[in-house]
Amino acid sequence: MHKYAACLCCLFLLNLTAQAGNILAAGHEISNLAELQKLAAQGNAEAQFNLGKRYEDGHGVPKDIAKAMVWLEKAAEQGFAEAQFRLAERYAWWTGAQNGVKAVHWYQKAAERGHVRAQYRMGAMYGHGSAVPKDEAKAAYWYKKAAQLYQNAAEQGDAEAQYQLGVMYQWGFGLPKDYDKAVHWFQKAAEQGNTDAQFRLGGMYESGEGVVIVKIIDGVSVIRYGQGVKDGAKAVFWYQKAAEQGMPGAQHRLGMMYDKGQGVPQDGVKAVYWYQKAAEQDHSSAQYDLGAIYAEGRGVPKDAAKAAQWWEKAAEENAHARYKLILLYAYEHGAPKDEARVVQWYQQAAERGNTVAQYNLGWMYANGRGVEIDVFKAAQWLIKASELGDADAQCLLGIMYLRGMGVLRDRLAGCGLLRVSAEKRIKRAIGLYNDICVTGKADISKTEENRLHDEMTKLVKSAEGLGLLR
Hints:
By secondary structure, the chain is mainly alpha-helical. Helix content is 63%, strand content 3%. It has a domain at 6-191: Tetratricopeptide repeat domain (Serine Threonine Protein Phosphatase 5, Tetratricopeptide repeat), CATH 1.25.40.10.
């Protein structure tokens, strides 16, 4: 996920049709590829756009993003707003500052031609300071332009416009934040089958944001609304609507509702069913939860191998899954003990700058657990963790300096590291520092090193201590 994704996490791609000449659509699709290519080569902007879209989607031609970009850019340079927007979307989701600048350039071009989605994106980019300096005034300007078009389209019954207007009221993008109006427009769009609106509406009923609930108290109807008023049954209703249309996020939330018994009776079998639906679409949270269900045997027979299978799938994006895999492979919780896999997950976490993983990886290289003994690699990872202030790493690295393991023997550096670690209340460092560096009555030995950490006690710390849940 690159740096522009954060500003777009609440924004969804829209597919509005043309409204009053403000939203330029792709026009009719030319079915004959040869004719399309001929027209594109002759400079027809619409044909260039459609040809670029074909290459982008792999529709009737082999998928080729490079060729897609060429044709989209040709159409965009002729002022074809939908091509400008699509080109901007591509650049926005690629890494690098240069791509961010190009994204803003094409969003602005499309926005100035009245493309509502581009106007919305411009508001978001200025609002979050992504690829442009943060500018609340410019964000408000573009959001308001988009809001006017969305309002007109929403009142004419366009479901996507209704949904997007709901998002703007929910988050206060270009409009005053108003949960009641957000629910109103989400409801309108959801009733037309818009999955994003169904999912958002389910979320608002689950959290109690802006929903209206009529309670009968002593025979009198009492209307309650606003934050904290929840309706789990309605949340389930709307999640189910979106889930049945294949939306993985809704399938995951519906699985959670059945798993926890919120809004419906608790049902492990149905929880597994919906988790699996979402997991098979690469929804990492669903993969993690499905792994947990198999690990604990809730609604399915307990199966550590299947738990590992789903956690492996989730681990690239889900830190909780990485932590669970370390526990699973290190301690044989029904799965084969596999220290090599533990090393693999520590390596991934260590490369992300996780100091505890760096320490544990260094320890495993120093002791040959899951890998061949390599004191140089051990020192490399312990140095990284020590420089970031990990007290355990400073203690073990101090020992390595005193023994000349993986580093040049250096009593001054070794004692310095032990002292720093001791000041952080690491008991073994306190004892070694006093015995070796202060009184000089003892020398570091292999026995002392083995006593530093018995076997794998440091392999897994608490979830918080591991830092893998950050």
